[in-house]
Amino acid sequence: MKRHMICILAALATLLLCLTGCGNGDDTVTFRLVCQSKDIYQIYYTCYIDGESFCMGGLADLDGNELTEETDLTFSFSRDYFEGADISKLSFDFSPYGKDDTSEIATTERLYIAAEYGKTYTIYFSGDREHGFTVELAN
């Protein structure tokens, strides 16, 4: 019984920590990229604020698999990370890579997002090598 109670208390403590420090709180903005393209293994992004490059990052399946609509490509930024910058003037461009590519296939046009803390934005990435790639913000 004592062991069972310790497990319950540990689970409750973990839940409490997650509710207060994880997820998408008022001091975090989260983006979820959904890859609808075939033969894409990595997608790099550049984040801009008010037209100026602010940061870069990359998204991939940790096992090295092809990206699909089911692959978790979620990334978040805290208010502190942006150092007080106005995230309502945020934009991104995305550069996909194939399995053995050593440079990007292409780079999308910039996607402008009037972002707000405490929200999650879903971005659809689609296209192919022949016709190019696009990104679109979900409604």
Describe this structure in words.
The relative contact order is 0.22. Helix content is 14%, strand content 40%. It is built from 1 helix and 8 strands. The termini are far apart. It has one helix at 2-21; strands at residues 28-35, 42-49, 52-60, 74-78, 90-97, 111-113, 120-128, 132-137. The strands form 2 sheets. A 4-stranded mixed sheet has the order 4-1-7-8, with no helix packed on it. The protein is mainly beta.
Largest sheet: 4 strands, mixed
Oligomer: single chain
The total count of helices amounts to 1
How much of the sequence lies in strands comes to 35-45%
Radius of gyration: 18 Å
Helix/sheet category: mainly beta
Task: Outline the secondary-structure elements.
Elements: H1 2-21, E1 28-35, E2 42-49, E3 52-60, E4 74-78, E5 90-97, E6 111-113, E7 120-128, E8 132-137
Parallel strand pairs: 1-7
Antiparallel strand pairs: 1-4, 2-3, 2-5, 5-6, 7-8
Brief characterization of the structure:
The chain is mostly beta strands and 139 residues long. It contains one helix and eight strands; from the N terminus they run H-E-E-E-E-E-E-E-E.
Features:
139 residues; mainly beta; four-stranded antiparallel sheet; 8 strands; globular
